[in-house]
What we know:
The chain is built from 9 helices and 5 strands, in the order αββαβααααββααα.
Amino acid sequence: MSRVANKLRENADNQACADCSQPVTASVAWATTTFGAFVCIQCAGVHRNLGVKISRIKSVHMDTWSADEVALMKGNRAANAVLEKHVAPAVKAAVNQSDGFRAAYIQAKYAAKTFASPDGAAFQLPPTAAAPLSSSPSSSSFSKRNNGMSSVDVAKRFVNYFVVVGRGSSLKHTGDIQFQPTILDSYPETLADAPLPPHIAQFAFPERLTLSATFREPTFFSFVLTNVSGAKVNFRPLFQMLDLNNVLAVFTCLLLEQKVALCSKHLSVLTPIAESLQALL
């Protein structure tokens, strides 16, 4: 992560979102490895809706980066020199005015490559996108029409697929505890706007934890969370267990995905930490 963060810190062009020009910092920045550009959390959500076949999104702070992925990050200036070569300044300036404008602009920029050709100078954001997009978690869509192009519907989902993963075939021997996940089954069938990737990244485990060839029964327990309006919630356990950067990373993940997984050997702190995170929602 530090190599990617350094690319952001060392170049002023990378410290503003490549799409909407909002300021970004290494702790909350996202990146499209497909195009080598840094984006803000709002634009990252639109990129994710485009599907990994168009734009693959990673967190600068939370995700693990390979050397090849770091090398792909040429920066915002290089990406926009091609993708925004013929964009009208007024169109670029309007991206932040509504969620609909943001979605229509990113769709045109990355999926249709509209601004890479001289015809992009005549592009106009659709008036129907001026109103903010629905915040319903089930689904929402926007339609874009320009220069005779057919409408494009982009669905908003929190989950694209449920998959069953298993041991991959690239292991040297059956006792190897390195886990190379292979998709064995999935639901639903392939979505047109978000194709199932041919492979998924290697699993990342918490520090000092690894897979073991020896089976051990899991520990199950239940607890009740306080969910009362106006109840006092103590955030101290969260800051005692995590440093500030990790707290910000959890907050970012929670606000973007609206879900986090809590793993700790200290079972007594899971309840107060879960309550503090729930209070943010």
